[in-house]
Amino acid sequence: MSSSTEHPRVITCKAAVAWGAGEALVMEEVEVSPPHPMEIRIKVVCTSLCRSDVTAWQSQAHASIFPRIFGHEASGIVESVGQGVSEFEQGDHVLTLFTGECMSCRHCTSGKSNICQVLGLERRGVMHSDQGTRFSVKGRPIYHYCAVSSFSEYTVVHSGCAVKVSSVAPLEKICLLSCGVAAGLGAAWKVADIAGGSTVVIFGLGTVGLAVAQGAKLRGASRIVGVDTNPEKSEKAKVFGITDFINPHDYDEPIQQVVKRITDGGADYSFECIGDTRMITAALQSSCDGWGLAVTLGVPKVEPEVSAHYALFLTGRTLKGSLLGGWKPKSDLPLLVDMYLREEIQIDEFITHNLSFEEINKAFDLMKEGKCLRCVLHMPK
Ligand SMILES: NC(=O)c1ccc[n+]([C@@H]2O[C@H](COP(=O)([O-])OP(=O)(O)OC[C@H]3O[C@@H](n4cnc5c(N)ncnc54)[C@H](O)[C@@H]3O)[C@@H](O)[C@H]2O)c1
Ligand SMILES: [Zn+2]
Ligand SMILES: [Zn+2]
């Protein structure tokens, strides 16, 4: 279903609506409004499920932001453009951006940050420009997620929350660069700037942690220790460069002591890719005196505060946060797509499952049960 890009009309299509926190998604006929000024409407082609979707869907803290359409790791084709949009036209291939880039705010122009002040992470379930929604079911507004909401056949995003990519890149693969894989690679390359020959420890070997491993391996890290409580992660981890797999359940002592012992006093770089603030502390403790750098990527479900002994900092460690790997999405993500096309980075290996959009609840089950890395959901053609 499409409408002329000059006069776009409301589209009625299928979307997976979460009516309450943790409740199975329901396929609903939703109305998707035409794009407002500076917005675009996208026909979603593929969307994968990221842990952040599951965490937000389960969280009672966001109970008032339902009904809601989740999804933020997606690829698609521009269906229509709103007034004032010159950057995109109908038919462009795009990735959605859960943290956008306005190109003009203090952060966007700083050259130091990807935390846009205008189109940054949207937490209230609405669009940045007017705090409204673009979805409804029988006249009832449906909230957004990260101003992306890709669990819908069509979605509306701000033109700063999408990036045009090569039209020859397979959309069913590169959707992973819209969040998880880009987040991990950037944490290794841009945020930590891993040096060759160094030791790295990664807590959590989901897609994000394993993308950090891939980034560390490509930088020539000599030892990449992976920590995960799921023993099934051990085999897959080798594909991405993990040299030592550690399951904390196999030890009686705290995991940071194990890491310190096998790395001669701590790793050069440590990464928290779980979403558990206690593991941020463990990552910090697992990094070495003097120059140890702990990078935290996880989005915690509970206990948002981080606690750490001050002496960890006095002895020279740094703790750094990382959103979307520090990439400036408009300029940097197309380069990652091109690297994939040149076979310089792996994406396919992260895709453990392909399902049709209708099977979305199965994807949620797979992630909750720790059975997948990325499950790509394919929209009907
Ligand atoms: N900062 C960013 O830009 C960004 C981007 C995407 C995802 N995230 C966040 O990063 C985290 C990882 O995302 P993902 O999609 O790879 O998730 P995932 O669920 O696929 O992977 C998490 C891994 O951590 C392991 N784990 C859980 N508890 C553990 C523990 N106590 N000790 C060791 N291992 C443990 C799990 O077995 C799993 O393999 C999530 O919190 C997600 O919300 C952040
Ligand atoms: Zn994500
Ligand atoms: Zn900005």
Automatic annotation (TrEMBL):
One of its GO terms (biological process) is formaldehyde catabolic process. It comes from the Eukaryota. Keywords: Metal-binding, NAD, Oxidoreductase, Zinc. CDD domains: alcohol_DH_plants. Residues 208-338 form the Alcohol dehydrogenase-like C-terminal domain. One of its GO terms (molecular function) is zinc ion binding. Gene3D superfamilies: Medium-chain alcohol dehydrogenases, catalytic domain, NAD(P)-binding Rossmann-like Domain. Residues 37-165 form the Alcohol dehydrogenase-like N-terminal domain. Pfam families: ADH_N, ADH_zinc_N. Its cofactor is Zn(2+). GO terms for cellular component: cytosol. PANTHER family: ALCOHOL DEHYDROGENASE, ALCOHOL DEHYDROGENASE-LIKE 6. Homodimer. Belongs to the zinc-containing alcohol dehydrogenase family. Class-III subfamily. This is Enoyl reductase (ER) domain-containing protein. It comes from Camellia sinensis.
